[in-house]
Amino acid sequence: MKKYLQRSIIPVLASLLLFGCHSKIKQQEDEIYSRHLQEHIKLTIISTQMPDNKSEMNLLLLNDGQDVEKWRIKKITDSLYKKGLIEPLLIVAVHAGERIQDYGVAGFPDFENRGSKADKYEAFIINELYDFAKKKAGVRKFKSIALAGSSLGGLSAFDIAWNNGDKIDKVGIFSGSFWWRDKDTTASDYSDDKDRIMLNKLRSSRKRPKLQYWFYAGAKEENSDRDKDGVIDTIDDTKDLIEIIKNKNVCSPSDIVYLQSPDGKHDYNDWSKALPVFLTWAFGK
Fold first, then answer.
1. Does the domain at residues 4-283 carry the CATH identifier 3.40.50.1820?
2. Any idea where the domains of the chain sit in the sequence?
3. How far is the C-alpha of 73 from the C-alpha of 226, rounded, in Å?
4. pTM of the predicted model over 0.85
């Protein structure tokens, strides 16, 4: 079952705190060298106070970490934590490198060969960044792990989570680029049913990842309406993907949440309004 929530959420913004034994949250800049991507990757790290029981610490890996200020993620996280609405949380936000090549569907570049390094980026997240986060937090294991992103970063987050359901528990997609296709829409034989890469991958996939899914889309993100049904493509593509997940019976209906904003645009201002809802869903007490 999909949950349709037609509302705008205005986050309460407050001043905040960092990781370690202090009571305040800090925001750190860090860096890791990836042997898979063959480059240094910049990171922004935000954390609530470390709990006495380290096994209670949760992890959020976030794409497009260069835009954390636009997300207002530090202030929103601090506000929620101060109010006792979320559990202890470490956020590792990954700054995009060659974004148009790193983000996509692993092994399936689009019709312009974008996303050609998505498999390498996935290997970086799973085989390198996860161990880095554990060392940073000083934990052997996190209570739960979520991966999230917006737009093309949302497509990337979904693909990596689907491929690694044994390592990731939850995935959050803000306006995911599920239009990602292997043929231009101007081609005479283009078909939504055959040429949307992520949707086709799901249909043919035998994986049964034990994931929980959270999706967001705004009704004013674009004007494009490929099938002329009066619904913009961002919403149609997201709902179509949700239907595939539902039909595959890979999770309980309650494990799929869909939030739609009637006035939402394709920008960080609106994504940040939905962020508190995602964080309380993923890490709420």
1. yes
2. 4-283
3. 34
4. yes
